[in-house]
Fold this sequence. Notes:
Helix content: under 10%
Number of strands: 10
Number of helices: 0
Largest sheet: 6 strands, mixed
Strand order of the largest sheet: 2-10-9-4-5-6
Radius of gyration: 13 Å
Amino acid sequence: VQLQASGGGLVQPGGSLRLSCAASGRSLSGYRLGWFRQAPGKEREFVAVIMFSGGSTRYADSVKGRFAISKDSAKNTVFLQMNSLKPEDTAVYYCATTRVVWSEIENQEHYANWGQGTLVTVSS
Length: 124
């Protein structure tokens, strides 16, 4: 499966963006699709994940209540709606797939098929 992330850009603090992760090559059915981000000078970190079949989700504490992950099965695409954005949300956002058990879902070592990343900049 190949993943294409898009939707990044420059937004003011408090603003919103919606990222998309479109999959091609095979259906995402049976996969978990996660979003990660890497800020300048920092390690890549878990943001959110969705079970493509079933829809269970999990969020990092830093984005809970502000970000929402969703899917469109017909389009084989996962979205990350980001609201109330803060400067500390500035990062390159990546999507990737996993089939790992839910207890390990935040560990990026279990992920593959990484997309190319999309840059989100939150600044006034």
